Model the fold of this input.
Amino acid sequence: MNRRYEALLVLNAQGKEDTVREIIERLESEFQKEGAQIEQVQKMDKRHFSYVAGALDSGYYVNFVFKLRAKFKLDPEVYRQSYERLPEKREKPAKKMAKAK
Done:
């Protein structure tokens, strides 16, 4: 059974702003190689960190929503990452129509 996840990744794009699209495409293909079914990719732009905890003061944020069965490793361009398991999508039941009199 595949489970739904949301991954917020912060990419190390320092000095590589023109290649962010290539990094995201590479990550997307790595997700797919590991068996993930990508539902959504949300590119959130470059942002400065509220506090600096490492060598970088900013990063490019990207959010993936996907289904996955197993764990995987990510690209070294990923500076920080956060995963959250999402509830399964449920289809809304059809609305009951009132009977005509």
